[in-house]
Amino acid sequence: MNVLILGATGTFEKVLTSELSKNTSHNITAFSRHSSEMYAQNNNVKSVDGDALNIADLTVAIKGQDVVFCAISGENLPKIAENIKTVMENENVSRLIFMGATGIYNEIPVDMDDDDNLDNELAQIPNRKAVDIIENSNLNYTILRPVYLRNGDKNDFVLTFKGEKAKGYISTISSVIALSTSLINDSKLYSRKSVGITKDMSKG
Question: What is the pTM of this model?
Answer without folding.
Answer: 0.95
